[in-house]
């Protein structure tokens, strides 16, 4: 009997030790005390194809504060905190995102900002949160000013913040690609990564994630042959401003130097490039420069209005079927492809002074 009691005591200690190892606490607070008495939910999304979230725990907010306690299975996941469930949160309430992992996690929810800390991954994830908070603040500033024209440096600030967000997302995802938290961020942020970054991240995922239909499709896309520097341009069908079908080959290789410029009316960095591109076009058109703008806008009228507003006098085509973007591996814009007089690609993704210098090198 004593031996059985001893074994049970040892098992109790071992189980308690395992629970402590995987235990977490989440202490949170709302800086605006307007949701007291409301139910706060800690939730997760079980898979990328899930149509709703799963509730892990819930508590009532008191004095702007709340606390959750629980245990994990040891695999970090993305957790979501909201007033009301994630699908139907309370009006004007912020939604917090954190990494659910063992340890003491802290989260602060402001009206337009969220911050996390307390555990290694949440400290790192806060770099992503910080970039998102800055972007939210800029959007509010632009909105309060009545539009982007009311904030003179909005475009340059937006570009810098996009780069900051991309860097933070990539670094966190790379460090966590083998766990559920990293998988979720990869899936939700993939559109902001370059082809090279995607190729770097995918092999870091476990086999289960890589074998999902979405990841198989992405891997197939990454392995697709894209026309590269030193190779001839690839022809593709586009649409001109009158709605007529036009082949890229009608312009590529027909001038001493052709710049293919993928852009959109809604793309701040693209629009920011236009004054410099206009200056370059005017300076080198007579020497044999041609520019072929390829819009990825889904709104045809927005595309046509932007061409007129920004005085873009060069050839304008639309990638209405997205076949050109797919063929040239365009994941982010602006994206440029520079051709010589033979239609051979001599450079990609040049902008500003670097693009002008390469044009001058070809034409002078």
Automatic annotation (TrEMBL):
Domain Thioredoxin, chain residue ranges per copy: 227-364
Subcellular location: Cell envelope
GO function term, MF aspect, one: oxidoreductase activity
Residues spanning the signal sequence: 1-23
Domain of life: Bacteria
A GO cellular-component term linked to this record: cell envelope
Location, primary (coarse class): other
GO terms, biological process: cytochrome complex assembly
Keywords: Cytochrome c-type biogenesis, Disulfide bond, Redox-active center, Signal
PANTHER family: THIOL:DISULFIDE INTERCHANGE PROTEIN DSBE (PTHR42852)
Annotated protein name in UniProt: Thioredoxin domain-containing protein
Taxonomic classification: Bacteria, Pseudomonadati, Bacteroidota, Bacteroidia, Bacteroidales
């Amino acid at each position: 009997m004593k031996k059985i009691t001893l074994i049970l005591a040892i098992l109790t200690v071992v189980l308690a030790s395992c629970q402590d190892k995987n235990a977490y606490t989440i202490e949170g607070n709302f800086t605006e005390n307007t949701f007291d008495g409301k139910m706060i939910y800690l939730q997760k999304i079980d898979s990328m194809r899930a149509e709703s979230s799963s509730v892990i725990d819930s508590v009532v907010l008191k004095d702007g504060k709340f606390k959750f306690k629980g245990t994990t299975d040891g695999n970090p996941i993305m957790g979501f905190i909201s007033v009301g469930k994630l699908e139907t949160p309370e009006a004007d309430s912020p939604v917090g995102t954190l990494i659910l992992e063992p340890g003491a996690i802290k989260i602060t929810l402001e009206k337009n900002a969220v911050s996390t800390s307390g555990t290694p991954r949440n400290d790192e994830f806060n770099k992503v949160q910080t970039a998102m908070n800055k972007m939210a603040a800029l959007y509010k500033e632009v909105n309060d000013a009545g539009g982007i024209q009311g904030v003179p440096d909005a475009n340059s600030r937006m570009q810098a913040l996009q780069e900051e967000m991309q860097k933070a997302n990539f670094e966190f995802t790379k460090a966590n690609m083998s766990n559920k938290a990293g998988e979720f961020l990869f899936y939700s942020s993939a559109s902001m990564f370059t082809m090279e970054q995607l190729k770097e991240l995918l092999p870091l995922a476990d086999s289960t994630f890589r074998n999902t239909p979405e990841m198989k499709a992405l891997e197939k896309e990454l392995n697709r042959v894209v026309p590269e520097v030193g190779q001839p341009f690839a022809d593709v069908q586009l649409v001109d401003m009158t709605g007529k079908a036009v082949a890229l080959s009608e312009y590529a290789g027909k001038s001493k130097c052709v710049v293919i410029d993928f852009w959109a009316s809604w793309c701040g960095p693209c629009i920011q490039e236009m004054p410099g591109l206009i200056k370059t076009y005017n300076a080198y058109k007579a020497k044999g420069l041609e520019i072929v703008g390829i819009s990825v806008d889904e709104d045809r009228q927005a595309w046509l209005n932007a061409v007129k507003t920004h005085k873009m006098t060069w050839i304008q085509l639309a990638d209405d079927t997205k076949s050109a973007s797919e063929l040239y591996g365009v994941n982010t814009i602006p994206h440029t492809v520079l051709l010589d007089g033979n239609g051979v690609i001599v450079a990609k993704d040049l902008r500003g002074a670097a693009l002008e210098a390469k044009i001058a090198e070809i034409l002078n």
